[in-house]
Amino acid sequence: MVMITRPAALFGGLLTALALTVTAAVAEEITGYRSAEFGMTSQEVLARLESDDVANIERHQTEDDDLLIDGERQVEGEPVTDLRYVFPAGSDRLALVVAFHPNVADHAAVKEQLISQYGEPWGAEMTEWWFEQLKGDMPEEPNGLTIWGGGESAHNERGRLVRLWHFDDYLSVEYLDTRLLR
């Protein structure tokens, strides 16, 4: 009987380890938005926008001297997305991409896409803490926040986050590298 239990336990342990490995392999490292990677120059990002189906591209400086590249992504079968690529003042390195989804009804589809790409989001307690810290600085108070990332990996992704903000009329997804925003 012990001989049967040990192989069964070993097999069960192997299945658990395999499931954890597959789950970890599914979650992608947060590197940017589509082919635009954090740390790229504005010229490198502009060169990649066409391959990401981004059109109506405009480039401008803010009063604070941040460089912004705005565009629009309309791909059949996906939510319409207005995009903003942000290069902070004093740097020509991509630090933030904001994707605006003008239809709040896309919330479930956008969240599922992010889960399939980055795995399960942060737990409720940590997200609630961030939500309380950040919502006061928002021009419009959000209804909710979901966050992915911020951990450490062999690829040094600490400080890289994806934040899904849920508002009354739209969704906003921020892909950011907090180290490059300083």
Average pLDDT score:
83
- Tally of helical runs: 4
Question: How much strand?
Answer: 25-35%
Structural class: alpha+beta
Write a structural description.
The chain is of the alpha+beta class and 182 residues long. The protein is 31% helix and 29% strand. It is built from four helices and nine strands, in the order αββαββββααβββ. The chain has helices at residues 2-26, 42-49, 107-118, 124-134, and strands at residues 32-33, 36-37, 54-61, 67-73, 81-87, 96-101, 144-149, 160-166, 171-177. The longest helix has 25 residues, at 2-26. It starts with a helix and ends in a 5-residue tail after the last strand.
Tags for this model:
alpha+beta; two-stranded antiparallel sheet; seven-stranded antiparallel beta sheet; 29% strand; globular; 182 residues; disordered N terminus
